């Protein structure tokens, strides 16, 4: 066995497996040892099945020994988000109502990753039904931040981000409606990508025309993230909104050439959000770094005043459609913030939903017109640094005003503030190892996704 460690890149681990410098069983044992060291205190991995994982690693080794053609992730240990159906494996969705649920088929994202050859070892923790910016539930408990366990790992892919950051897994997948890949990646110091709509198709789902939530990859670096995206992406005849390019366009590492890249920089999206001064400083420094590398960076302030109402309306409508029957059958058994969102969806009219879609269209136009020659946007992924873990998510129904709460920033501390105060919000800590920057690109679909025609208005923090 080589000097490979659980902190090595996924590409390095795969190369060592292919060159037979390490076996799948040895690689699995390294990761199981790390899980044993870190997971009891952090609760990132749930439904761990070591024996089944060892059986899977043995099968992976046999395939390599036989010289059989193997997938691009063959032999790599992997844990799926606990909201994605995995055949024969507990899939609780973080809810006591599904504590004993074992699906009989894989959903599409799982199907693709399994076909790529991973060794499944367990699941990653989620908030109940992936609804929340903090990862806790009544089945497994709370996922804590791997850098500072007194703080939150974010959500809803908090278990995935924490597991990645600590070396429990080399890659992870998740989903994102209002930040559920980007938010925990920021809190835990890893990389999360919300792909363009249709880039990572999903099946089955109640509404195949749904455009608020997408699946996507997470990794410890961009190169590994692109590798996983190459497995997740690509068309499927069951998904009518799927983009046509094969996922293989992301597989090979690409040179980073920033000369001439046109970047729109926005700390607080035109005053749409209160932003902690430390987060603002990270975004501004990212802009300076891009400029030094040759990018053309320009500050923009789009009018996104319609975004919060748009997102909350579409989210409530989606939750009512997918979880309304469950709430009706089990009143009082869903967490309060989720029940509030479902009931908000019940009160919506067709005119409300039509208004939200019209506003979403207007928001896309406003972003386009505010910076018509922009290649990508550089923004914050969270308005304050890691917050404390919470036993309940802030209610985010359509009736709740968009103001900071006790689980968010308590005061306006944006660099756009008049005095740019140095005091922090109540729950803030320095974002060490925790980049608070996210980006959208509209240059070419195979590179970063075409946000011009598929822009997502769900920038409000909250359920994802």
Please characterize this protein's 3D structure.
By secondary structure, the chain is an alpha/beta fold. It contains 13 helices and twelve strands. It has helices at residues 10-18, 24-42, 50-66, 108-115, 158-165, 182-188, 222-232, 277-292, 307-329, 336-346, 350-370, 445-448, 451-454; strands spanning 45-46, 77-81, 119-124, 136-137, 141-142, 172-176, 191-192, 214-219, 262-266, 296-299, 376-379, 438-441. The strands form four sheets. It has a four-stranded mixed β-sheet. Helix 8 links the parallel strand 9 and strand 10 (296-299). The two termini are 41 Å apart.
How would you summarize the topology of this molecule?
Elements: H1 10-18, H2 24-42, E1 45-46, H3 50-66, E2 77-81, H4 108-115, E3 119-124, E4 136-137, E5 141-142, H5 158-165, E6 172-176, H6 182-188, E7 191-192, E8 214-219, H7 222-232, E9 262-266, H8 277-292, E10 296-299, H9 307-329, H10 336-346, H11 350-370, E11 376-379, E12 438-441, H12 445-448, H13 451-454
Parallel strand pairs: 2-3, 9-10, 9-11
Antiparallel strand pairs: 1-3, 4-5, 6-8, 7-8, 11-12
Helix pairs in contact: 2-3, 5-6, 9-10, 9-11
